[in-house]
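Structure tokens please, single chain.
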Amino acid sequence: MKCLVVLLFAALNLPLVFAAWGYTDNGSAYVVDTGASLVFSISKTNGDLSSIKYKGKEYNGYNRKNSHIQSGFGKSDVTIQQFTTPANIIKVTVTYGTIIQTYIARYGNNNIYMLTRKGDNTARFLFSQN
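Here you go.
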């Protein structure tokens, strides 16, 4: 009987064990869920970080401004990939001219790793916090 109760409890809590790790496409943005407490969105049009939610609270978008590189990209090529080896990661790549901005999320990790490759040596990232 105890075994049955344990199995039933485990089955009912399975979604908690496998939190919503992964990404979805909501039409205008890729929404990345780290499987921890962080969910963020990247605009498919210009690569802006359009939402950063930690433990359900929105931290991006002061005065409806997105976080972005430089003065913000124009129309960009935005792609997303999910990998399982060598680690569970999601990689979003934004290409605008000679600039390549990459966002990486790791499963169970509440960080957004950002990498920028630019044709010249000047770059800045603007984070608009709510």
